[in-house]
Every structure is written in C-alpha cells, then in structure tokens.
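Example 3.2
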Amino acid sequence: MSERKDVVTKVDWQKVLPCSMLKSTFGVAIRIPVLFLGMAAVLVTIGGSTVGQSLFISDGDSVEGTTVTEPMALASDVASDDAEYYFFTCVGRIMDGDLMGVIGDVHSKLLPTAEVSGWNAAALSIWHIVLVLAVWSFFGGAISRIAVVELGRHERVTFGEAIDFGKKKFISGFMAPVFIVISMCVMALPVLGIAALARFEFGVAIAGLLWILVIVFGISITVLMFGLLFGWPLMNPAIMAEEAGDMFEAVSRSMAYTYQAPLKYLLYTVACIGIGMLGYVVVMNFTNVAESVIINVSGITAGETGAATLEAAAKSHYQNDISGPVAFGSRVISSLHIAGRTMAVGFLFTFFVSAAAGIYLLLRRAVDQTPLDDVYVVDEETKYALPELMEAAKAPAEVDENELSTSPELSVAGGENDGVSETASDTTEPQEPDAEDEADTVDSSDDNGDAQ
C-alpha cells in the first residue's frame, strides 16, 4: 500500500490568521500615489487653517503655537522623547474617565487655537470642523478606496480611479458624521425644553417628573457620541467598499461594528498603533538620511560657498544676505525639500486611513461573516454598458441614413426630400386615385393630343 505524502509549500496566513492582513497597511500607506494624496491633505489643511485664521482672527487676538501648520514641528513632536510619556499619560487619563479632556488636548495640539471671543470663536471652530470633514471625505475617501481594494482583493487601483471615487462619494463621506451630529442635536431638544422649566419654582417639580426622559435622551446622545468618536474612521471604508455605499450605510455599519465587536476593534487598533510607530520611524529616518545624502553629495562639487548655500536651502534656513538668482534657486530647493518632508509627515494620515480600511474589513468579517475580498469593483462590462447601449440605439438610424444617401431614387428625384417621400411611398399600401387626380390625368392627355 503506497503512502501519499503532501508537502506544504505555502501557507495563506490571511485565511489562517485574518488579522495578519494589517501588516500590509504599511505597504499601502507608503505607495507613491497614496503619499501624494497624504501630502495634498496636509497642504490643504495648512492652507485652510491659514485662511481661517486670516478671516476670523484679528490682529489683537493672540494665537497659540500650533503644529498642524508646521509639518516638521508635528513630526518632531511625535518623534520626541516626551511623546511616549504623553501617550501613556493620555491612556491613564482615559482609564480615569477623562476622555473628553484628552480629546480637547488633541484638538488643541492639531488644530490652531486662539483666544478669540464672541462669534469669531464659534466661526473658527465651525471652519476647522468643515475643513477636517472636507479633507477626510475627499483625500481620505480616495486613500480608503485604494486600501480596501488592495487589502481585500489584492488588486491595484489607479490614481485616477481613486480620485473619481473620492469625488463621487464626497457628499456621503462629508454628511455621514454630520448626520449623527444632527441626530444628537435633535435628541437634545427635549432635554433643553425640560431643563428650561427649572427657571420657575413650580417648573422644577415638573422637571423632576419628566427627568426620566432627560436620562433616556442623555444616554441616547452618549451612545451616538461614542459611535461617532470611534466609528468615524470606519465610515469612509464602508462607503468605498460596498456597492451601495452611502451616508446611511456608513452610519449603520460603523455604529454596528463599534458596539458589536468592541474588543476586536480595540485589539486591531493596538496592533495598528504598533505597526504605525515602526513605520513612522522607518519613514522619518529614510527622509533624514536621503536629505543628508543629497546635501553631502552636492557639496563635493559646489565649492565651500555653494555648499553652504545649498545646505541652508535644503534645510529651509532663511538667509537675508542673498538675492537675485541665488535667492530664486534657494527658494526652489527649499520648496522641494519642504514638499518631501511634508510627504513624510503625510504618512501619518495615509497610514491612519489605510489602517482604518483594514480594521473595517476585519470587523465586517467578524460581525457580518463577509469575506475579506467582497469589495465592490467596477468591471469593464459594467463600466462601458451604457455607452454600448447608446451606440446600439444610434446604429439603426445611421444605417437608414446611409441607405437613403446611396439610394438611386435620390438622383432621379433630384433631392433628399423627394427620395425620402418615394422610399416612404414604397413601403405603404397602394391607394386608389381620387376623382380629382383622374380628372387631372384626362386633362393632361387631352392637352398632349392637341399639341400633337
């Protein structure tokens, strides 16, 4: 009896251990098209923040130092020795129940803050919220499309297709979190109405009887708020991965996955944080080494003065004693190096979006038992189905016109309209001549006889 031996040559770890897919998020995040989208997102955020400050902050208002408008300052803060201490401090504060305080500190760290009073403060906050939502919806949507297709189906999406998806799904991505905020505001109306009764002594008694409603609506608002806080990163992947991805599906899926698989969500997030920290170290060191190589190699033939000028320009050090062509060349070199460093900082954004896409696919598999590769793609037949139908509808008309243009009746009749009428008359049944037509025929025959 022969013995059959099977040799295992390859293990599909994604089927054995689905969470191993998260290691591929780094590869997605460092692709050149994805990094360009991340750099564009950072630059748009910087430009939008600057515009907001110029619109709503007057000269008398004092603005605190911010990092979002200085990409390398943000990078140095993340890579500093205090970053680890700050991270674990925030974790401890969250464990103590100070989640809202941590969110406020992160907001003040990433977005410009100013001592603005009155309506300017509200307008500046709304401007920042709209700016973040717009950047996340368009650039984050395009990156999410690339990530869900590559992580789920192991296929590539072109840069143009990703931009098209970002444009088509922009409204859904923008309105999904806004829909939750509007729902929270609607639920807050009964609470405000009952609380307004406390202005009167007798109204306090009525408010006490209705306070159970305040508790119910307060808990509902808290559920929506936590769903928005933790489910917001899952909204764009839901829109980009599903065939009918829209605002409502993004809200329902993000809420469901956040509350139905919270432990898995936490474990996947911790794994992505570890991968992201290692990836950020690699990206920043690669950027710094590449910049040093460029400066040292170019200084070999540039001479002492030229090498100093090139080094100052590459490191974006402002020089007051240069002008003319030297100043122009220095500005160009400085701009290119700033763009490179901004792209490196944009890795934070691209990895965050890519990791959110991977976590969404894993949570969808855990909750809905949906395969990882079940990602909507536009195939060639679907993409070009409508133009084919339009061409098929036009084909008979073109054939008829071609037959009419080559018909011999056109040359005999002497015109296109005559040819059409003669062709049409051939297709109709013969009709008996009217009495007037017979009389005209008799008269014409008489005239011909007289003439003869």
